């Protein structure tokens, strides 16, 4: 469960004037494929559609932050889809690291230890609700 303070930090970072979503998504995937090169084969050569899927998923998940039952249903479905394409706990670790690293680069001086902790906690909670990282 995400605390009220963490929700506020997450919303603030997404709504930041520094947040340019298209740039963030490109940067995230570059970092993710560098950390987890084996997962690149799961994705299409043309990543435009995948970029849109990530933005859509992220939007739905952030909107559902204040509605845990809706969030749970979204994450259960996403977990099943990710398991079907053989995503592993190691990939989720790489995802979380790449995601927070890309956010830190994009947000620059607006990024803080508290913001990092909020996002890391949120993304770990997402992974757990998708039935990943259960052994962590």
Number of domains: 1
CATH superfamily: Globins
Major sheet summary line: none
Briefly note the structural class of the backbone. Answer: mainly alpha
| Number of helical stretches of at least 4 residues | 6
Provide an overview of this structure:
Keywords: Heme, Iron, Metal-binding, Oxygen transport, Transport. InterPro entries: Globin, Globin-like_sf, Globin/Proto. Pfam families: Globin. Residues 1-135 form the Globin domain. 21% of the residues are buried. Helix 2 (21-35) packs across helix 5. The two termini are 17 Å apart. This protein is 70% helix and 0% strand. It has helices at residues 4-14, 21-35, 48-63, 68-84, 89-107, 113-129. The mean pLDDT is 89. The chain is mainly α. It has six helices and no strands. It has a single domain, classed as Globin-like (Orthogonal Bundle).
Features:
136 residues, mainly alpha, Globin-like, 6 helices, 0% strand, globular
Structure in a nutshell:
It contains 6 helices and no strands.
Task: Summarize the SSE layout with pairings.
Layout lengths: L3 H11 L6 H15 L12 H16 L4 H17 L4 H19 L5 H17 L7
Helix pairs in contact: 1-6, 2-5, 5-6
Family: Belongs to the globin family.
Pfam family, one: Globin
Keywords: Heme, Iron, Metal-binding, Oxygen transport, Transport
